């Protein structure tokens, strides 16, 4: 037994301390400050959620103000903040008439989207990609397609696996799999619009057009999982906007409050709204529409409309894209996938480890031959350039076994 009184998530406990644990004194702006005084650039926005840095004054002030006004609320209560933020969020989604179901995490957003899709359609099966992550709770894990699924006796009998976009660019195989399973038994297709730690897969417009038409033709709901890529991570506020998709449900969390408060939201379209005008909504949470989460989200929406913030974010995106393009011609680099401030870099050999990069002052994701980076939106161009230069040095220094 290890001497820690808590678990390390997604980890083998005896080796977790040595593998990727780090002692933090505090965090500020775009950096962790370690107990020995060293500063480490948060090149992964912690776990993709710290898009607005660790100490943004606008978000902090909104939360502090709400603490004095009303820090807790009944899920059935109505108050001006709840009304205002819901309306602002609906405008941000820009998908026409709809309503918001609030949650506390990405997993809960996915869980409730799945429940709604199944209840409304009367169908049980969900189509999901072979390589995907949708959350840690049982329903979300059941549609997850990575190593986190098998240990938990998930309800995979109701999950249909469709190929990755790169392996099925026309979606012909996916359509055939759905037809073979019986399209009248499929409630929804759930997709990360652009994936994260599973490789930053960026599907083509052709693939998404075929998915959208399949859903429309067969009465299948389209659930977009924007937990990681939403709220500006991949350029536009939501990645589905890049593809001009018309989903039935959109799941969000992470950047929804910049990680300052555990929070999430599901956008539901007109079909769902109309259904629950006559049928009982069998979904709910004790801390539904928590006031502190609403306050943080309110500040995030304001930041996403602020011209100075957006100008800086655009400058970061341009530097990031240019550097990633340069990396495509670097030794050992075999592929780079980049959209907005999210990128994956594939090497022809083992990637620099997380600990090696951390020692050089970068917190990022490294697995096998792949590195994933997602810098905060609040960095300066100079600070991001410094981090990118270190990253390039780490990649240039890899050795082929």
Task: Kindly list the characteristics that best describe this protein.
Aspartate Aminotransferase, domain 2, 38% helix, four-stranded mixed beta sheet, 14 helices, 401 residues, alpha/beta, globular, Aspartate Aminotransferase, domain 1, 18% strand, 15 strands
Could you give a short description of this structure?
By secondary structure, the chain is α/β, with parallel strands linked by helices.
Describe the structure.
The protein folds into two domains: 13-55 and 307-396, Aspartate Aminotransferase, domain 1 (Alpha-Beta Complex), CATH 3.90.1150; 58-303, Type I PLP-dependent aspartate aminotransferase-like (Major domain) (Aspartate Aminotransferase, domain 2, 3-Layer(aba) Sandwich). The strands form three sheets. Strands 4-10-9-8-7-5-6 form a seven-stranded mixed beta sheet, sandwiched between helices. Strands 1-2-3-13 form a four-stranded mixed beta sheet. It has a four-stranded antiparallel beta sheet with strand order 11-12-15-14, with helices on one face. The longest helix is centred in the last third of the chain and has 21 residues, at 307-327. The model has no long low-confidence stretch (mean pLDDT 94). The protein is of the alpha/beta class and 401 residues long. It is built from 14 helices and 15 strands.
């Amino acid at each position: 037994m290890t001497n820690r009184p808590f678990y390390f998530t997604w980890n083998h406990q005896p080796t977790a301390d040595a593998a990727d644990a780090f002692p933090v004194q505090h965090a500020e702006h775009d950096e962790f400050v370690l107990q020995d005084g060293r500063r480490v650039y948060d090149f992964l926005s912690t776990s993709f959620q710290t898009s607005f840095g660790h100490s943004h004054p606008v978000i902090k002030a909104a939360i502090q103000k709400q603490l004095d006004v009303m820090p807790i609320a009944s899920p059935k209560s109505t108050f001006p903040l709840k009304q205002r933020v819901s309306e602002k969020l609906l405008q941000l989604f820009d998908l026409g008439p709809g309503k918001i179901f609030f949650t506390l995490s990405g997993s809960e957003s996915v869980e409730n989207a799945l429940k709604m899709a199944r209840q409304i359609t009367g169908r049980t099966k969900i189509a999901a990609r072979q390589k995907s992550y949708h959350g840690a709770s049982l329903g979300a894990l059941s549609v997850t397609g990575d190593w986190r699924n098998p240990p938990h006796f998930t309800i995979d009998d109701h999950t249909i696996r469709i190929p990755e976009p790169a392996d099925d660019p026309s979606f012909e195989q996916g359509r055939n799999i759905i037809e073979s399973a019986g399209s009248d038994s499929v409630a929804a297709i759930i997709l990360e619009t652009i994936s994260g730690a599973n490789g930053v897969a960026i599907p083509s417009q052709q693939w998404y057009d075929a998915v959208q038409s399949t859903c429309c033709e067969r009465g299948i709901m389209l659930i977009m999982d924007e937990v990681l890529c939403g709220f500006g991570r991949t350029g536009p506020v939501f990645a589905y906007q890049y593809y001009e998709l018309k989903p039935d449900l959109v799941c969000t969390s992470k950047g929804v409050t910049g990680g300052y408060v555990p929070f999430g939201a599901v956008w539901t379209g007109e079909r769902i709204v109309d259904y629950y005008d006559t049928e009982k909504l069998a979904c709910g949470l004790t801390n539904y529409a928590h006031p502190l989460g609403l306050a943080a989200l309110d500040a995030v929406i304001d930041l996403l409309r602020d011209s100075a913030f957006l100008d800086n974010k655009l400058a970061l995106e341009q530097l990031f894209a240019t550097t990633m393009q340069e990396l495509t011609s670097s030794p050992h680099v075999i592929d780079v996938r980049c959209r907005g401030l999210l990128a994956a870099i594939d090497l022809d050999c083992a990637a620099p480890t997380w600990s090696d990069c951390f020692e050089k002052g970068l917190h990022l994701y490294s697995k096998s031959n792949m590195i994933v980076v997602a810098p905060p939106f609040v960095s300066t161009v100079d600070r991001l350039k410094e981090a990118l230069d270190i990253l390039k040095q780490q990649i240039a220094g890899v050795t082929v076994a």
